[in-house]
């Protein structure tokens, strides 16, 4: 007759508790994932249905797969949805690239270039975060209108290139960047610009990708500023096109959901492609909880 040592029994109990704990964790994560995916399922389900199927009492789990809704959306003469997708893509990509360039240079200058007014400039940048957007909205529109940038890409892109918060994030990141790499670059004869472009940027791609993801999503989802600047239907972004399907007289539910499903595809691709860099980049900002 064999007996089990007490320490072995303890290990077995701990192992059983570990398996149960992992199982509970996986179940919880699975439930959370399903709840997260429910809105996306409803968007796709309603996008492939008719209006009576969306609003009717006899709700069905699966749609009737009305693939003609796609052609109806792009053939709608009142809304140039294809053009609005192109406009949003141009605005989002240009805003992202411009913001990365402007804010990274500003953050690098505040973090690395020594001059007596650096702190004052930094405090001025922080002060912009305390000003509500509504306060600067009208002056910004008056300026853009006086420059003749209404219904143009310049009016949609240039006012949003600088972000005080993004500049702050870049400064915090560059403060933690190893100075030894930059000092070695200066020994080789590189100045601030050379060190930034050849040393700092190539070694900070994770953080740049994280900021690019956040900026792209924000620019793509922007509504109020494009609504005011894009007064001609040819200059509408996708968010303005989405709102045009809902009027005082009619609401085209199937077109709204189909347009929504198509409009979120670029965001899904960007997030899936850059999600690893997004997590790593945010962890490198230097902001701790």
Properties at a glance:
289 residues; mainly alpha; 71% helix; globular
Net shape:
globular
Give the class from helix and strand content and strand pairing.
Answer: mainly alpha
Q: Helical percent range?
A: over 70%
Order of helices and strands: HHHHHHHHHHHHHHH
Low-confidence parts lasting 5 or more residues at pLDDT below 50? none
Question: β content, as a range?
Answer: under 5%
Number of helices: 15
Average pLDDT over all residues: 84
Total number of strands:
0
Radius of gyration using CA atoms only: 26 Å
How far the N terminus sits from the C terminus, by CA atoms, comes to 56 Å
Largest sheet: none
InterPro entries: MetI-like (IPR000515), MetI-like_sf (IPR035906)
Membrane topology: Multi-pass membrane protein
Domain ABC transmembrane type-1: 85-274
Transmembrane segments: 23-44, 89-110, 122-144, 156-174, 195-220, 253-274
